Every structure is written in structure tokens, then in C-alpha cells.
Amino acid sequence: MSTASQPLERECELKGDLRLPRIIVGLWQVSSEGWNARQPLASMINDLRTYYINGYFAFDMADIYGPAEPIYGDFLESLKKSPPTSLLSDTIPEPIGLTKWVPSSRESTTPSHIESVLQKSISRMKTSMIDVLQFHWWDYSEKRYLEAVQHLAQCVKQEKYVRHVGLTNVDAIRLEEMCRLVPAIVTNQVQYSVIDTRPEGPIRRVCEKYSVKLLTYGTLLGGLLSETWMDQPEPMSNLTTSQCKYLQTIHAWGDWTLFQKMLKTLETIAHSHNCSIANIAIRYVLQQPHVASVIVGARLGVSSHVEENWKSLDVVILPEEMQRINEVQAMGKNLLDVIGDCGQEYRQ
């Protein structure tokens, strides 16, 4: 276990000359049929601009995230019509759009079909190239994922449609299998938090071997890792789709009582650093050398923590504080044993 011994820079460099901010804005929430789907477009675009001028220059989405790609495209158009000024420096990096191709189990993996999919995303995102195309595959018994990722790498080599290839929810075995064929893979997006520590297992060794970095989601458990839920009874209703998902993760690890113990431990540490539980939870993940960035879900048009999130990079978690976190983690189950390796929850 590495220790957060010093503050982190706001950006990191990956292979292939890709630079990412340590915190990425996630657009998964816009696929919801609930609150976010009803927010005015102008309000959501304004929020994206606010993130952008405050240093969040990378945005994560997918072809299956409802209107996420078109919203990002409208955001890019707004930047052209009204160029913003960075609040952090004299220059502001170009926006980086990370999207996903999530084919159905029977979907074609021929080059012509893949390129039609990429063209559709490019059109929706109103860009000339996809900065990072993250590939997901549902059924590993269907080995066509190998030909698919090879063609995506060929697109990168030919400078056609895609600048970089990443993966989504790929386990250690398949990550190594794909990296042997496609050395250009730069990222793998997986679930990672203080209670779901599966990325500290086999996948870390593969990442280090092939210089692949992790992009992590679920790091704040849909907002459950916050002061709001301290000393509160377990919620039974009025949860977001995201919170319902991560409540299941909590139960796989332990129970609500044990989760309260983790919250209180994180809150005590946060108090000593004059920061929030979320800051400690984010820093815990970002301190891992095989992690590039944490993806924080944006509630566009509803709320944001633009300035607060950056405090996570300045926190220095002391060894004795890390030990206290580890002790609570050990009271729960190892999710590698309960769920399986990263992404297995999508293949049960």
C-alpha cells in the first residue's frame, strides 16, 4: 500500500503523449430518467464550462449514456462561439472527450461496422476525432473482442477516428491478453473506492507491466461517501440510480453499520486536514501509482463541487491514518472473493 506523502499535480502524463487531469468529469448521470434528464440544456452547458475553466478539461461519456455525447458536442460548440478564460493559468488545455463503445453481445466487430460506430460518436460529439475510445465487452467467451480492439488500434495508427484506445471494466486476465496484441492501450476504467479495493489486486501488476493507467469511477459511491450520510439510518428509498448500485457494493463488502464506521474514520481524518470525507476518499485512490484519474459524476444543472474536489490533491494522508483506514477495510469482505475481478459485476 503506497502512502500519500506529498501533494499531487493536477495533471498526469500517460503513454502516447496523453495528458489528463487527475479528476475527470463524468457524464453518466445524464442518462438518468430522473432529475438530470429534466435540466435545461443551457444550464448543463454552463456547468460544463464552469468545470472547464476550473481545470477539469476531460469529460467521460459513452454511446449508451443517453444524450451525453450530444451534450458534450454542444459544449464544444459553445467554446467556439464564446471562448472562455482559464481561472487557473494563462492557458487552458483543449477539452478531452473520452467516450465508450459498448457493443451488444451480438453486435458486429467488422472494421466497417466499428468505423460506422466511431463516425456516429464523432458526429454526436461534434469533433473531428475521439480523444480516447474506451472499449467494453460483455461476454469473454466470445473472443471477437480481440479483433475489435486490434482494429481500434489500427485506427489510432492510421490517425483515423481515434487518438487513443482505452478499455472499460476489463479484468486482469483479459487486460493482459489485449495488451499483448495491442501495446497502445492507455487506460482501463474500473470501479475503485476505499471499500472496493479490487484494483489493488492482480490488475495492478498488469497495469504496471504494460504501462496502462486506471481511470476510476464509484470512488465516492454515488455520494454515499460524504458527511450527509453519517449517523443516518440505511436509506430505503429516494436514492439515485447510482446510489442504489453502490448500496449493493456496500452490502457485498459488509453492512450499513460497518459503512458507518468507515465514514466516521474518514471524517476524523478529514477533520484533521480541514477537508471533506470526499477529499480523503478521492486521495486514497489517486495515491495509487497505477491510477491516472478519478471520475467524479457531474450533476449538471443541479449541484457541483468544483473547488472542493481539487482539495483532494493537496491532502497528505499520514501512515497512521492509512493504517486506520486499512483496519476498517479488513473488517469487511474482500470483494475479489465476493464479486470477482474488476468488471465481473457486469458479467454475473
From TrEMBL:
CDD domains: AKR_unchar (cd19101). Residues 22-328 form the NADP-dependent oxidoreductase domain. SUPFAM superfamilies: NAD(P)-linked oxidoreductase. Pfam families: Aldo_ket_red. PANTHER family: NADP-DEPENDENT OXIDOREDUCTASE DOMAIN-CONTAINING PROTEIN, PROTEIN TAS. This is NADP-dependent oxidoreductase domain-containing protein. The lineage of its organism: Eukaryota, Fungi, Fungi incertae sedis, Mucoromycota, Mucoromycotina.
